[in-house]
Design brief:
This protein is α/β, with parallel strands linked by helices. It is 45% helix and 15% strand. α11 (274-288) packs across α13 (326-341).
Length: 343
């Protein structure tokens, strides 16, 4: 299923929604030598199943296990260059939390992270392991994480580091696609998982600069289709906190700053089921020997299960993260094994 965009709505006043290639170029300089330049993988068998030539940018192998390190480092380093502060506050279901905690440790500032009570235990443990203070909340009925984070930021005089709705965060995220398109020059499509929209906003901005004719698709779980609905309606749509195994894609509304960029640069949003993500995760681990979490595998699932016409084309896919609990992984693999036994 594909959700196409409606006619583009007016941008935010004052050009707030703009993100330029120059912002991404500056981010590349800022993170150079700190963030990993992650590899690009191929699989002949995946190509055969998808009917396309597919290139995987392995951000699951980034520091902290996800692309989020790029934006977090770009944001905190840039702000430290402008002014002095001793603490940062962030809110996240896991990967941004880990990234902010790790970056804060590297740069010598305290980190306080607001995380949902049902965040994967491995992500909670890693965030605490990097030295961050974790404040838990109930995402299904305990108040908005943004409000909690902003209150902590005001009370402590800290820097707020949002997970996606910030130009420096978006620019940092876009550096992954810049690297991919330097290595693979002639992609026809770019496919990117979508949560709040920071990754796809940065990715699409980089892609359209480096290869203007490229087509960019976002991917969401079927039950977490807020960006798909928003594109179809031409304005931001909020849904209840979605239930999906892709815990990193459970944001109920696209960002205020990210959405206008998505409207201008993204062809549409493809939807995948939890079962399709589990199948693709299991296949990737078994055949390619690479672990990608459900949120990170969503783009690959959309290509593997042919959610758009990629036949015969060259497709870039972002594996956006690889942080998954061993117990959950065993559950996913068991589920797929049982499913495969009755096919």
């Amino acid at each position: 299923m594909t959700a196409k965009r409606a006619p583009h709505a007016d941008p935010l006043p004052g050009g707030e929604s703009e993100l330029a290639w120059s912002d991404i170029a500056e981010a590349r300089l800022r993170i150079a030598g700190v963030a990993h330049r992650t590899p690009v993988f191929r699989s002949r068998q995946f190509d055969e199943a998808a009917g396309a030539t597919v290139f995987f940018k392995a951000e699951n192998l980034q520091r902290g296990g996800a692309f989020k390190f790029r934006g977090a480092y770009n944001k905190i380093r840039a702000e430290l260059d402008r002014r002095s502060f001793t603490e940062v506050v962030a809110y996240s279901s896991g990967n941004h939390a880990q990234a902010v905690a790790l970056v804060s440790r590297l740069l010598g500032v305290k980190a306080t992270i607001v995380m949902p009570e049902d965040a994967p235990p491995a992500k909670l443990a890693a965030t605490r392991g990097y030295g961050a203070e974790v404040v838990l909340y109930d995402r299904y009925g305990g108040g908005a994480r943004e409000e909690i984070g902003e209150r902590l930021q005001r009370d402590r005089g800290a820097l707020l580091v949002p997970p996606f709705d910030d130009p420096l965060i978006m620019a940092g995220a876009g550096t992954a696609t810049a690297e991919l398109l330097e290595e693979v020059l002639d992609l026809d499509f770019l496919v990117v998982p979508v949560s709040g929209g920071g990754l796809i906003a940065g990715s699409a901005t980089a892609a359209k600069h480096l290869r203007p004719g490229i087509t960019v698709y976002g991917v969401e779980p079927e039950t977490a289709d807020d960006t798909a609905q928003s594109l179809a309606k031409g304005e931001r749509v909020e849904i209840p906190v979605p239930r999906t195994i892709a815990d990193g894609l459970q944001v109920p509304k696209p960002g205020r700053l990210t959405f206008p960029i998505i409207q201008k640069t993204v062809e549409g949003v493809l939807l995948v089921s939890d079962a399709e993500m589990v199948e693709t995760l299991s296949w990737t681990l078994e055949r390619m020997k690479v672990l990608v979490e459900p949120s990170g595998i969503a783009g690959a699932a959309a290509v593997r299960h042919r959610k758009a016409d990629f036949a015969g084309r060259r497709v870039g896919v972002l594996w956006s993260g690889g942080n998954v609990d061993s117990a959950r992984l065993a559950e996913f693999l068991s589920r797929e094994s049982l499913s495969g036994s009755v096919r």
